[in-house]
Structure formats: C-alpha cells, structure tokens
Amino acid sequence: MQNLGVEVLFEGSNMERLLGGLLVTIKISFISIALGAILGLFMGLLRTLPIKVLQIILRVYLEVFRIIPILVWLYVVYFGFTPLFDIHISGEVTAILVFSLWGAAEIGDIVRGALESMPKHQKDSAKALGLSSGQIYRYILIPQAVRRMLPGSINLATRMVKTTSLVVLIGVIEVVKIGQQIIELGVIKAPSASFWVYGFIFILYFLVCYPLSVISRRFERRWQN
User: Fold this and answer.
1) What is the dihedral of CA 76, 80, 85, 87, to 10 degrees?
2) Which residues, 6 or more positions from 40, have their beta carbon under 8 angstroms from its beta carbon?
3) pLDDT tens digits for 42-94?
4) Which CATH class is domain 7-224?
5) What is the pTM for the complete model shown?
6) What is 42-108 written as a DSSP string?
7) Which run of H or of E encompasses 26?
8) How do the domains of the chain map onto residue ranges?
C-alpha cells in the first residue's frame, strides 16, 4: 500500500511535540496580547490629552512599529541588545517584548480613535452634571469606546497570533519549527510529509484564531441589541 504521508503525524512523539509547540505559540501570543492591551489602553488615553509634545512622541512610537517589519524588531532586540548591553535575552522573552510593544502601539491608536469618535455633547453633558474628567472616562466614554474598538482589537489579536510564526527565526522552538524538524526527519520515507505537517499546523492556527472571531461577532450582536 502506498505511503500517504499522514502517518508521519502519529509516529513516535510527533503529535505530542506539535501540540507542545502550539502551547509555546499560544503562550507568546496571549501574554503579548494581554500586555499590549494594558499598555495600549494607557497610551490611548494619553493620546487624547491636548499635550503636543506627548502626541508627537506617541505618534512617532506608533509609526516606528508600523513602518519597521516585526522581523527586524525581533532581530534588533535578540541579536542587537545582547552585545550592546552585555545581557542575555531568551528568544521567548524577546518575542513577548516585541509583540507587546507592537500591540501597545496599535491598540493605543485603536483606543484613541474610539474615544475621539464619541459625540462631543456627551462629554459636555457629563461636565454639566458635575462629573470629573476621571468619572467621564470611567462611566461614559470608555464603556462606549470598548464596543467600537472590539473589531479592530480582535483583528489585531489574530494578526499577532499568526505573526508569531516569525519567532522561529530567532531560535524559538514553537509549532512551525517543530513541524520543520518532523518534515526533515521523515521526508525521505514519506515525500508528502510536508503537506500533512503544514496542513495540520494550518488547522491548529485556525482553531486558535477562529474562536476570537466568534467571540467578537457575539459581542457585536449583543451590544447592537
């Protein structure tokens, strides 16, 4: 019987290794998303303040992360900081640091856009009722802004999950790297191993990202009603 190649997924501990690599991908992704969301919310609030110097600094910070590819950031932090500051930074820590800063920049802009899209009369009415600036943000602006920034935030989260595949280039052993190792060992015996291994990795990424889209749609429908 012809070897279909799918057997390579179940040989030895290959399946266990792939799932272990997926856990590394999930850990890097979700820690980065959480840290990026916290920092991004704070940056977004700062970007609504009428302080010109602060706006320029935060705008430059955002553009730097948008213009320079994430792969270059990974290389700069992982290979550049080590000799420059004589410190060792692991690949996983590098990935979490870079992805968190990227997420903070993007989420900060999403928060700014959502807050600035709020009708001005709501803020004026709240002031007329005697609410402080902190209370206006806490009870009126932020709860409404969260609804508006949810689609963009979910989109960014899925992009961050998918972009973690780049961390293999700084030596992190995650699901793509383990997939490459399995293919290299099994390609002679099963020439179609790359199809099955990468196909399985495709399904794993889909299973991680699809629930985020489902949750986003449910929240949107709930808040529309």
Assistant:
1) 90
2) 103, 104, 105, 106, 107, 108, 110, 111
3) 999 899 888 999 999 999 999 999 999 999 999 999 999 877 888 888 999 99
4) mainly alpha
5) 0.86
6) HHHHHTTS--HHHHHHHHHHHHHHHHS-HHHHHHIIIIIHHHHHT----HHHHHHHHHHHHHHHHHH
7) helix 14-46
8) 7-224
